[in-house]
Amino acid sequence: MTASPARLEPRWPAMLALLAVGGLRLALPESLSAGPAWLLIVVTAALFIPAAWARYRHHDLLNQILGYVVSSIVTLDMIWSLGLLVAALPTHKQSPQDLLRSAAALWIANILVFASWYWRLDAGGPRARELRGVHTDGAFLFPQMTLDLRAKREMGEQCWSPGFVDYLFLAFNTSTAFSPTDCPVLSRWAKVLMMIQALISFATVALLAARAVNIL
Questions:
Q1: pTM, whole model, 2 decimals?
Q2: Membrane-spanning residues where (predicted)?
Q3: For residues 140 and 180, is the Cβ–Cβ distance under 8 A?
């Protein structure tokens, strides 16, 4: 069953999220960035052009591959910057203000990056969810998936499928509460990703930000 055009999932929120990660990189000191501060946002924007073309031409596999490439580049850049920030702590070369600003930027980037991965990987990805039309199975058990048919009809959710905001909310909860708050995690790959995200969030908030506050 092919999803109707009205139910097609917009891709621009996920694109904006990764572009925002590139923008957050501008808040980092040069010593904590791999290359020029503007490089990530330029590379991300450049890769979105062929990805958008592939989506428009219905080259789903190419669009999916390019999406994985963009997300991987942004993820590796974030982890690299986090490693540089942790390594810079004992040297005391960064000012407390730079540490706080960098920790905040990386914490937000962590949310956006993993929200993008959950959105991109769950139930085969956004295109597969579009083709199914109704989301009934995936790595996360969203509350809408637990409703009976009558409740779904009354709420107008017969063709409900998660969008990027749903995965952004999941990623935000993982970084703040270190656990999902509204939906159980079913797949092992999702559990592994959530553990990595929570670990990065803990390192950023508990170690880096606390260290910066202590030396103000």
A1: 0.87
A2: 12-28, 34-53, 65-87, 99-119, 192-213
A3: yes
> Cα 67 vs. chain centroid, distance in angstroms?
12
List, for residues 31-63, the tens digit of each pLDDT value: 888 778 889 999 999 999 999 899 888 899 999
Which letter does DSSP use for residue 9 in this model? P
Nearest CA to 118 out of 62, 179, 170, 44 is that of 170
148 Rama sector, left if φ>0, alpha if ψ -120 to 50, beta otherwise: beta
How far is residue 164's CA from residue 13's CA, in Å, rounded to a whole number?
A: 6
Q: Give the number of other CB atoms < 10 A from CB of residue 58.
A: 9
Contact between 137 and 32 (Cβ < 8 Å): no
Tokens of 135: 């989301």
Beta-strand runs (E) in the chain: none
Half-sphere exposure of 47 (CA within 13 A, CB side): 22
CB-CB contact of 129 with 123 (8 Å): yes
Q: Would you report the helix, strand and coil content of the chain in percent, each value rounded to 5?
A: 75, 0, 25
